[in-house]
Amino acid sequence: MVAHRTLVDVTDLIEFLERKESASGVQRVVAEVAPLLTREAMAECVILDRSRGVFVPLTQDEHEVLIEQGTRAHTTASRDDVASTATTTLQRSHNAEPALIDSDTVLVFLGALWINDALMMAARYAHSQGAKIVSLLYDLTPVREEGHTAAVNRLFDRYLTLLMQTASAVPAISQSSRHDFVTHATGSGYAAPPGTATGLPCGLTPQGRDLSTKPWPRPYALFVGTVESRKNHALAFEVWRELIERHGADKVPDLVCIGRLGWHASDFLRSFVTTRGLNGKVSLLTNSVADDELARFYAHAEFTVYPSRYEGWGLPVSESLAFGKVSVVADNSSLREAGGDLCVYFTSNDAAAMVRAIEKDVLDADTKSQWEDRIRSHQAAVTSWEDVAGAITKDLGDLQERGAVFPDVELGREYMLSVEQPPPDEGYADQFLDHLIRESLTPMLRQPRGDFDAAVIDAAIVGQFGSPQTWGYEISPGCSVTVRFTRPVDGPLRVLISTRSMPGTASIEATGPGGPEFTQVYLGSVITLAVGDGRAGEPAQVRMSITEATDSIEGFLGIRSFVVVADSDTETQIAALEASNEALRQELDFIQGTRSWKVTAPLRKWKGRGA
Questions:
Q1: Which CATH class is domain 5-187?
Q2: Would you place residue 203 in the very low, low, confident or very high pLDDT band (cuts 50, 70, 90)?
Q3: Which of 74, 155, 361, 455 has the maximum number of C-beta atoms within 10 A of its C-beta?
Q4: DSSP letter for each residue of 411-466
Q5: pTM for the complete prediction?
């Protein structure tokens, strides 16, 4: 038994269940491991309320439907019932009592933490409250492989920095992924947090399923995986083209590809459409395929292929073996961990090598039969979900506390909290110029936005935020934000924070050197926080709480950027104030130009509020 209070975040699983989608690799892991951790580690499942940035425990009934049933193998719950419960749970979280998070808390992330910036910010805040962070690592795909969107790459960089700075343990699903993480951390100047390699069991098995119905009218090979460039559908397509040219369409099985549409798969999709799937020899099923149907596809396949260029594990390889099918697999990353010596391997990204492997080992009936006999007779120990949960629980037993992070900041450098938005088509010069002015220059000092500021910002600005917005962070009444950094110079410093311009005011309490200070700020103005005196290299921090925002049209205070300046640097402080005044004037000009302002002018004049 683990001596601390353990919370397991299941946010992405619950949001996934609400969409009624079939379980992918990550969600299947969360679905199977989370209920086991609630028993082995005496853990409690929580979800993130995005509107407040707090974690909320599941009720017993919610846990039974979403965690014990959910999308686990052999669940008896219907997708509609599970999705309805997921929706109700997410709605309830907006007003529910948050989970207590303090130095006795261990917060475990099993899912796709890297794709959710709100979740990463909440993890940062939990760490600042003393919680120990544990995150199951899947792979380093955006680092090792091209093909993800720029937005995903940015989020993944922030995720890795979060782990390197705050995690007490980082177990990984494979030795390969763990090795990649240690290498990346070392290259980034960090000591990698400890963690075991859990391995993964087969996500889908034939046990307890009716597999009698053939799902396809002709012989076929199966390729299961998201349609994205890394999975290498384009290579499989060219291999099938070559096989048909060499042997004739009648001697080559169909290629059935099952997986949702991902990203950067245009080469494959273009070839697929223009050739009509090689005249019907290649088919693509992108709608959600239920587990029972997918099991039938595995059971009746001639063989499977998996030409992926990089993986954290390779569940389709394990699933293929569970159904007794030979899998032709690219030889890279973790795929030998998933397939052992029971798969046919070929040189990664080599079409000719894949063609030779298919011809030699699976198109030849006798050789394929020998491989199938070998798979059936293999008696080696198989990893179970209980093994995975046990490995993670063992990591929870000896966690080291990670101290607060005080990032290095550049004096006088303004850091923007928002993520830069994609630019419009350069053919529209007016829109492109507006984008450059709005997105590329900071609001107070009109400095160029830094390309690698996220690592500083995420560590320097920690608090309870609503979901990040395109302009920055929102802070609701009762919530707070702490600004912390390593002093760049000797002497007294100040932090200037630009706020989002909107009608209204907010009341704040600033806690730092010299005691608490209460003030009211106009939204759109600059907040000045005194940090006090100190020497370069020492940690510094100041805390700001929002006590009231009832006079704000949106009910919160929005912050856009911050800059650390010397107390004596009046020039920079004046420039920031002038920029905020200009923004407020523009806001007022806009409001006074609206029809409602003009219509209500007589009423305001009568009330003595100016026309």
A1: alpha beta
A2: confident
A3: 155
A4: TT-EEE-SPPPPP--TTSHHHHHHHHHHHHB-TTT-PBPPTT-HHHHHHHEEE---
A5: 0.88
